[in-house]
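Suppose a classmate hands you a notebook page containing two proteins, each written out with its sequence and a corresponding row of structure tokens. How would you begin to make sense of it? This section walks through that situation. The first entry is reproduced here exactly as it would appear on such a page.
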Amino acid sequence: MPTRPHASKDDWADAPRSAVAGTGCDALILGRGTLDPLDYAVNWNTPPVRFLSPDSLRETVARWLGYYTDIGAGAVSYGAVILRRRMTGTPWVSSWQAGSAPGDRASEQLLRAITGHDLSAAEDSALLARRFSLPDETDITQRFARRQGRFHEHPAIISLDAGLGVTAAVDPDVLDVIFACDGQRTLSQTVARFAERRQMPADALAHPVTTAIRELLRHGLPDC
């Protein structure tokens, strides 16, 4: 799978995306971090040569930096690529930048994410007919920022403690519906309940809710 270095921290996912293209596999690309070449070279070479002279360290780091310059690498990223062979249909590729190290529940979130990516392609009607719930230790953070004399909502950030270390951002206006997803009612029933409370058509609430559910599914968060 030929690939190329990336020029900056902003294009960290381009190289693995090009590497998995044409493999016939679904791919989850999990970025764990990005360092500039100098930091990367120093981090990897300081422990082995810490008992040698400073000149040895400088020469080693310079050699590494010279190599990165030769190949056009402006940044070095690390993480994981998870592939699943697809027998039919068009493979999907998703890339995440993790904010923390994977925890004890990373594998269960990974399995839900693979299933969730498949389900997220379903029609709204199919999603509304299903039952969803969020697992224990789901963390939801809501922020507000004051600008020009008013507080404005930021997207709600949802993650799983001890999971993959990734977050999903959803419209805060649908959080009450998300909170009420307990695996007992269909999503359609829950939407209808809150649409009635808000005195609005259920169809008007259904679209932002299914959009949020798709985002959560792709991040392996809901049980379904």
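The notebook's second entry, a different protein, reads as follows.
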Amino acid sequence: MTRYIYIKKEPQTEKINVNKGNFVKHLSFCVLLLGFIILTSVFYPILNYEFKSRRFSSRLVSPIKVLGEGTTIVDYSRPNSWFPTAKDLPPKSSRITHYSLSIPKLKIEDAIVHVGGEDLMDSLIQYPGTSLPGHYGNAVVFGHSVLPQFFNPQNYKTIFSTLPTLEKGDEIFVSFDGILYRYQVIGLREVLPDDVSVLQQHYDSEYLSLITCVPPGTYLRRLVIKAKLTRI
């Protein structure tokens, strides 16, 4: 006589619920991992810069300016807001309004520098009243920076993002009024936004100063790359 044994099948809905629960767990893990990667990519360049810059000032300055009872975000696309206490320098007489700047190490090639310009989103800007390239004094050029992973040497919003990687001896080329000038980096330093000494003119030689904001992606301090004209 044949006997049959019946085994009750588990409800399929439970398996579906189990699979759904595993999917939710994996999705949560992926979201957390993605969030960690994003936070790391934002804060690591800043912390790394701070630890490597022990020779610079460690004092921080808020990028927010408080005016009366309200708070206003400073427009850093305008060069006059980088050193708010700086006095206007006497303008230099010149028919040249634009020239180009190249930094081979940073793959910056023929970037446009606007003499006395108003918008750092469109070009590099030479601070008005500072000496012109090839002349005795100090030509001071401002440029924007962001987190280094977004660096694009052809985008003026990010063009100076890797400026902190320059070292003494690195070359900077300026093409001004049909003449090519070669500068070599002689020093790097940080200053606070109220230190206007970097705009001063010293006429013992021909200097070039490149300035951007640091740490990367912030407006807390100013990095100054000082270079001196050399003969090609």
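A careful reader of the second entry would note: The chain has one domain: 64-230.
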